[in-house]
Amino acid sequence: RPEHRRETARFWRENRAEAALRERCLVPAGEYERFAQALERALAEHQRREEERILQVTSVTYPPRHRPGLRWPRFTALSLQMAADIREAERRQRETVQAALQKYCSFFLNHTQLQPEPELCAGPSDCRPPAGLQRDSPCAAEQPGPSRMQTGPDLAWMESGKVLTFIGHQVGDNFSGSFLGAKPPWLTEEEDGSKQQIGPSYEEFLKHKEKQKLKKLPVERVGANFDHTSQTSDSWLPSFGRVWNHGRRWQSR
Amino acid sequence: MSFLLPKLTCKREVDQAIKSVAEKVLVLRFGRDDDAVCLQLDDILAKTAHDLSKMAVIYLVDVNNVPVYTQYFDISYIPSTVFFFNGQHMKVDYGSPDHTKFVGSFKTKQDFIDLIEVIYRGAMRGKLIVRSPIDPNNIPKYDLLYQGI
Questions:
Q1: Do residue A223 and residue B98 have CB atoms under 8 angstroms apart?
Q2: Structural domains of chain B, count
Q3: Quick one: average pLDDT of B55-74?
């Protein structure tokens, strides 16, 4: 088709790729039509399967209606199961897209001497929503090239190198997540036993006030550094200056 | 009126008093309860004790009970009053030969109050010896002899 031809020519010119390869990349019209139809069929099939699974899950949990008091655990069971299913589905989609993209990414990048960004293959697949399967699959050449180049650098920053450490799904079978209505841990310790008071007692507070008053006294007063609580022996005598002009001058202190 | 003021009966109690009184002038009266001049001094001390309660703590010591301190402070005449602040001995120049203690009684209550105030202010400013505000005529006269010379 003419637009397809023109776009590939432009792409080749912009990226200065080998002209010989361009001919090979041109997708003939018939092939394109066939591919589009196959794509639609695959997509319909996939959506049908997903809906079937969801209906299966809800039908399993709807029957027990005679226990209204159990509504909360039933909903959470439903949501937990759905969460697990969705996680599984996402994972499979990611893998499919990754495999497909890798094939075509390597073809484009190796042969057209573009900026080597192999993370592009992994990038877009993780960040795009799973419903974008039909967009990511290797179809017309005009879409993946320029669009990927624009979004490439940003996504590469997010995914390359410093991958976040995954420490496991925290909310499993127990209902202890904050969004599930569990009590916060600092409120659940009601059976603590002795009621320990937090903070200083009344006597300590009074002593603290006395100390504050002490700080306000002049610093150079007599005996400011006198230790009032020191244990002295029986033969201790206070410092008493001499009475007569007998000893040295410093003894008269 | 010596029964109005607290008494210290042994050396350990005197030590305790010297070490524990904080940020106030410690007044130790050395004498005997039955001596005439001592009674006069005790009267003045008792009457002013309440007004000076924020600045001073007053104790009575019988010289017979604490021979150690009687010798250490060289107490030859009674009553003798010794002043301490935060465990440190305070000297006062009264115009008399002995600056380390006040010998005799005071003429008026106001004299004693003035003296305590001067000692307190001096101690707060870090002075170990202060000058007495009492009129020298009101200070009791005595002869300070060295071992009977």
A1: no
A2: 1
A3: 92
CB atoms within 10 A of CB A221: 19
Instruction: Please tell me the distance from the alpha carbon of residue B118 to that of residue B113, in angstroms, as a whole number.
Output: 9
Query: Shortest CA distance to A118 belongs to which of A92, A146, A90, A148?
Result: A148
Put simply, the chain A residues between 158 and 197 with a CB less than 8 A from any chain B CB are none
CB A35 within 8 A of CB A169: no
Which of A222, A229, A243 shows the shortest C-beta gap to B88?
A: A222
Separation of alpha carbons B20 and B15, rounded Å: 8
Q: Which amino acid is at B80?
A: S
Is B10 an interface residue toward A (CB < 8 Å)? no
Between A and B, how many residue pairs show a Cβ–Cβ distance under 8 A? 73
Global pTM reads 0.52
Instruction: Taking residues A28-51, report their average pLDDT.
Output: 87
pLDDT computed for residue A58 by the predictor: 65
pLDDT given at position A125: 44
B146 lies in some domain: no
- Domain with B114 in it: what CATH number? 3.40.30.10
Domain of residue B80: give its range: 7-138
- Is this complex's ipTM strictly greater than 0.85? no
Is residue B85 included in any domain, yes or no?
yes
B67 touches chain A (CB under 8 A): no
B85 at A interface, C-beta within 8 A: yes
Q: Count CA within 13 A, CB hemisphere, residue A242.
A: 10
Q: Cα separations (Å) of B82 from A145, B75, B98?
A: 103, 10, 11
- Tell me, yes or no, whether B105 lies in a domain: yes
Return the minimum-mean-pLDDT range out of A70-84, A126-140, A216-230: A126-140
